[in-house]
From TrEMBL:
SUPFAM superfamilies to which the protein is assigned, alphabetical: QueA-like
Name the UniProt record assigns to this protein: S-adenosylmethionine:tRNA ribosyltransferase-isomerase
Subunit structure comment from the entry: Monomer.
Record has Cell cycle as a keyword: no
Gene: queA
Source organism of the structure: Rhizobium indigoferae
Pfam families: Queuosine_synth
Length: 360
């Protein structure tokens, strides 16, 4: 499909720079392409009104790490140059794939000292070698530290990698360490938050429990590739970046039981949806799954397992806007986004949410 079909104009003031307070007071646009009235306005706190006992919410329990690193590049004993790297996928105890800037000036074999200002307790810096260099500024970094020691050093010298549409407007601060994390985050490894989950509070969890709504967790470590624009003119020419995830055997069995009993699978966020669809057979049965997924969902995709999706509002010409258009229909989602813009919904990571019914 042509990528420009997924374009729209968003006024700059619609980009949220902070989350709603409290989190579940954010607006919720309910989109049901199968109903006579497709669009209705609510709050996230009203979520239980659209679910029924026996339904299951699926959350992504990945935890954002301070994956934005600043450092000095060294080569052949020459003076250093300031560089930055955003870690996006761990591929070993001491190896990470990262997007580096300025990418053109970094070469295989370069040494980079991160946290050179003395922020780290590990001899004042965190050092790595550029093991490989790929396309679009992607590099493989081989760190001198490994395992938990590397994790501790990254936590000491790194910064929360705010999405570029927020970082362009204000610097990251201490508040973001809490705001840009779900209350159920557990498995460290993401460089971007599963943002639909940012709306949940302990009080909303209690309301879901009283309503008989099940909660289940999967893990997909969101990579920085989620912010990369689609530069191709046609979706067939776009390459998705891989992200690592896991669906446990116990979770798969429980979700299959929910479906067998007439319940619906409701994914909180596109990350959990992509993982469940990666783990699902053509029959709709969900299996235990672990690995890297690059599933690219565009209109025409047949959803195998997921019935409803809660998600934030996404960027124009993005893979995520393509995904929601596949889920509820392109015309429906274009109308939904136009309604959201005209009625003051807040967009992107810290913005409001939508609850989508799958198009029949």
């Amino acid at each position: 499909m042509r990528v420009d079909l997924f374009d729209f104009d968003l006024p700059d003031e619609r980009i949220a720079l902070r989350p709603a307070e409290p989190r579940d007071s954010a607006r919720l646009l309910v989109v049901d392409p199968n109903a006579e009235s497709h669009l209705s306005d609510y709050r996230v706190g009203d979520l239980t009104s659209f679910l029924q006992a026996g339904d299951a919410l699926v959350f992504n329990d990945t935890k954002v790490i301070p994956a934005q690193l600043e450092g000095i590049r060294h080569r052949d004993g020459a003076g250093g140059q300031q560089v930055s790297a955003t870690l996006h996928m761990r591929i070993g105890p001491n190896r990470w794939k990262a997007f580096a800037k300025p990418g053109k000036r970094i070469k295989q074999g370069d040494r980079i000292s991160f946290g050179h200002s003395g922020e780290s307790c590990f001899l004042g810096s965190l050092d790595a070698t550029v093991e490989e260099k790929g396309e679009a500024g992607e590099v493989t970094l081989l760190f001198d530290l490994s395992g938990p020691a590397l994790d501790e050093a990254i936590a000491a010298v790194g910064h929360i990698p705010l999405p570029p549409y927020i970082a362009a407007k204000r610097p990251e601060d201490e508040r973001d360490r809490a705001d840009y994390q779900t209350i159920y985050a557990r498995e460290e490894g993401a460089v971007a938050a599963p943002t639909a989950g940012l709306h949940f509070t302990p009080g909303l969890f209690e309301a879901l429990d009283r309503a008989g709504i099940e909660r289940h967790f999967v893990t997909l470590h969101v990579g920085a590739g989620t912010f990369l624009p689609v530069k191709a003119d046609d979706t067939a020419d776009h390459r998705m970046h891989l992200e690592s995830g896991t669906v446990s055997a116990a979770t798969a069995a429980r979700l299959n039981a929910v479906k067998a009993n007439g319940g619906r699978i409701v994914c909180v966020g596109t990350t959990s949806l992509r993982l469940i669809e990666s783990a699902a057979e053509e029959s709709g049965e969900i299996r235990a799954w672990s690995g890297a997924t690059g599933i690219f969902i565009t209109p025409g995709y047949r959803f195998k397992a997921v019935d409803m999706l809660m998600t934030n509002f996404h960027l124009p010409r993005s893979t995520l806007f393509m995904l929601v258009s596949a889920f509820s229909g392109l015309d429906t989602m274009r109308a939904a986004y136009d309604h959201a813009i005209q009625t003051g919904y807040r967009f992107y990571s810290y913005g409001d949410a939508s609850l989508l019914f799958r198009k029949d």
